[in-house]
Design a protein that fits this description.
Radius of gyration: 18 Å
Distance between the termini: 41 Å
Oligomer: single chain
Bound molecules: S-adenosylmethionine
Number of strands: 8
Order of helices and strands: HHEHEHEEHEHHEEHHE
Strand content: 15-25%
Low-confidence stretches: none
Length: 258
């Protein structure tokens, strides 16, 4: 068990799919145009959301390696047309070397890198660059959380949420909202061409009430130890009915130097 429930990943799935930047997806497909077969390594693959969203962007037939330490989540992932899938139940804290033999053509992950620490990311980027793989990270949280109408406790709760985000989740003290910028800088440092775009969740009470409610509950639980359970409860009571919620994410595509 990883702490990411299958129900939570299923609930956020449609918002994730809507939020992904389509332009980067097209650019990813163009990068692999003309290839017959690719090997793709998906880190923190969970129940296969990234496979479902990404496989159709690439014309070639693909062999996906889905790596996660949660066997119950992996068991819910299924192949897509044009793909074969291999499941690897691994703790990525031990490194990725065993997943790079054979080397992937594409290293990808979704909703994952904000969980990672800087040293872990640096080792990963070095491994990616050494084999010249393309790199595609979708839906990395970027620190923005706007709940409308506003509440006086929003700023305090967001700051506490960011402190919680930076806890060590097993891959070093997590970069949280800083992960995207760190990835981008390290990949540029390896000579990669980096393309970035926003992939925000744009939620409305009329369309996404359950996701807003569960997001508010999870956020309140995460900050209760910092802001106090009474203030967290006050914030939660108002945020469950928020009319609009924007949660900032970034997508990043990095292509190796020619
Ligand atoms: C937020 S979920 C994202 C899942 C999936 N990529 C998606 O977009 O729905 C983060 C995933 O990272 C996995 N994970 C976290 N820490 C891990 C570790 N140390 N080793 C392997 N997987 C890990 C979790 O099990 C979970 O499936």
């Amino acid at each position: 068990m990883s702490g990411f429930s299958a129900d939570w990943l299923a609930l956020r799935g449609p918002a994730d799919a809507r939020a992904r930047d389509t332009g980067l997806g097209v650019r990813l497909g163009a990068h692999f145009a003309g290839r017959n077969r690719l090997r793709v390594l998906d880190l923190g693959a969970g129940r296969g959301a990234n496979l479902r969203a990404t496989a159709g962007l690439i014309g070639a037939s693909q062999h996906w390696v889905l790596a996660d330490n949660d066997a119950a989540l992996l068991a819910r992932a299924e192949p897509m047309p044009n793909t074969t899938v291999e499941f690897r139940e691994v703790d990525l804290a031990a490194g990725v070397a065993g997943l790079f033999d054979p080397a992937p053509d594409l290293l990808t992950a979704s909703a994952f890198f904000d969980l990672c620490g800087s040293e872990w990311i640096d080792r990963l980027v070095a491994a990616v660059a050494s084999c010249g793989a393309a790199f595609y990270a979708a839906l990395t949280y970027d620190g923005r959380g706007d709940w409308l109408p506003p509440h006086p406790l929003d700023a305090e709760v967001l700051a506490a949420f960011h402190a919680d985000q930076k806890r060590d989740k097993g891959l070093g003290p997590a970069l949280g909202p800083g992960a995207h910028a760190h990835l981008s800088a390290r990949l540029r440092g390896q000579g990669y061409g980096v393309f970035e775009a926003a992939s925000d969740w744009c939620l409305t009470q009329s369309a996404d009430a359950e996701l807003i409610a569960v997001l508010a509950q999870g956020s309140a639980a995460a900050v209760a130890g910092t802001v106090g359970s009474e203030r967290a409860e006050i914030w939660l009571a108002s945020r469950i009915g928020a009319e609009r919620v924007t949660i900032g994410h970034r997508d990043l595509l990095a292509l190796p130097p020619k």
